[in-house]
Amino acid sequence: MSESLASLSETLSRIAEQGLVLDAGHLSRRTGIPVEHVQTLLGGGEIAGEDVDARIRERLQFLCRRRLAEGGKTYQDKEAVAALVKDLASSVGVSNVWARQLVDGGKTPSMKHGHELTRYFGVPDGFLTETPAAALNRTLQSHLRSEPWADSDDPLAELKSRFGLVDIARRGEPLSRDEVARMAGLLADILEKSMEADS
Q1: d(Cα 6, Cα 44) in Å, to the nearest integer?
Q2: What DSSP string runs through 101-141?
Q3: What separation in angstroms does the CA of 72 have from each of 27, 59, 62, 161?
Q4: How far does Cα 44 stand from its chain's mean position?
Q5: Residues 147 and 172: beta-carbon distance below 8 Å
Q6: pLDDT tens digits, residue range 132-152?
Q7: By the 8 A CB rule, do 128 and 58 touch?
Q8: How far are the Cα atoms of 77, 101, 153, 156 from residue 186, in angstroms, in the given order?
């Protein structure tokens, strides 16, 4: 087992212990890894025979699609793609022709340009090159650190104890500690009203 798969396996064990629910589609959108590969990794499998250059080009296209989507655009919008190419060329220091080939997935960036591209898109160094297992592990580790139960003062712990709840499962984006505390307050109000209605 590779080091990145072993690390991912440890992270998945921690997630299972905490009862967190994972959404393969959400993780795919965060990592740039195809959904079917995320599902394979979450199931303990490996991604075999992956070409590093193809991975870099796919991740770069993922970042381009995401940048276009932020403005409500797609690859079909020629003006939006042309604007992205021009901005990318200027920011990374390459010609418009070269930038267009990067955006279209026809060229693999050099290490120097890869670093500039990660800065341009605001993603961690190594985003373009890391293995799917390492990319998924990084994202899950970030998710674990942002979860309220990663710390000892879980705002939901008192709620669980007070109402005899075994666990509280939720889906979606990670919440801040303040958001979790507000959610705990709302749940407490709902549970109290429900108990009063039953009595």
Answers
A1: 10
A2: HHHHT-SPPPHHHHHHHHHHHT--TTTTTS-HHHHHHHHHH
A3: 21, 20, 15, 45
A4: 18
A5: no
A6: 999 999 888 876 766 544 444
A7: no
A8: 43, 51, 18, 11
* Per-residue pLDDT tens over the stretch 148-186: 444 445 667 777 777 777 667 665 556 666 677 777 788
pTM value is 0.67
Q: Cα(150)–Cα(176) distance, rounded to whole angstroms?
A: 12
Closest CA to 115 of 106, 102, 124: 124
Helices (H), the chain: 3-18, 24-31, 35-42, 52-70, 78-92, 96-104, 111-121, 132-146, 157-163, 177-198
- Residue with structure tokens 């959904």? 35
pLDDT for the residue numbered 96: 95
Nearest to 136 by CA among 66, 43, 17: 43
Please tell me the distance from the alpha carbon of residue 53 to that of residue 58, in angstroms, as a whole number. Answer: 9
> Measuring CA to CA, which residue among 63, 50, 54 is closest to residue 4?
50
Task: Report CA-CA distances (Å) from 91 to 32, 107, 118, 150.
Answer: 22, 17, 11, 38
